[in-house]
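Subject — a protein and its fold

Tokens — whole-number codes for backbone shape
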Amino acid sequence: MSQVVISLFDHSGRFVEPWAAAGYTCYCVDVQHPAGETWMGNVCLVGGDVRHFAPPPGPIAFVAAFPPCTDLSNAGAHLFRVKGLRALAAALDLVGTAADLCERLGAPYFIENPKGQLRHYWREPEHRFSPCEYAGWLANPTEEAYTKHTCLWTGHGFQMPEKRPVFPIHGSMVDKVPGSKNRANIRSLTPRGFAAAVFTTHHQILLTP
């Protein structure tokens, strides 16, 4: 039985691409996927609320979580008073669900969010990075030569991968994403360089006797 990788609040599936290519069975859970399970090779798109997700049996290799940041990020701080406490509480509940599941599964994990409210309502992140710091893992590093301040809350032996930085010639990604119904999805896309670095680091650990 192949080991399993779980990626929560993952619409694009970018994070699991290198894991799937290496033969891991990957589950991407997000309410935007079609209801139920849609298999694409060894990647399963699970459409539904993360709070109702039942992980598959068997060994779990890695867990990643990308909870919605709309009501947590400092980028929307000027709207916090307008949105009210319920929006904040709902956002924190999703983070709490991810944290509980990550801790219960026992595999190395990270929970990703931009700089924002989690440091006040939970704890300081263990790691911070920008995509340009991992762009050197790509065949064409300029694709991700941009900044986007990202925080990681980690556990169960997560290892921050080696950085291969490039100069951020594209500046800040947050400032360049135009307003549209897909803006949140675009802004939350997992950098492929970072995904490759995380995979390489933890895949090697799993292969070590």
Remarks:
- The chain is about 25% helix and 20% strand.
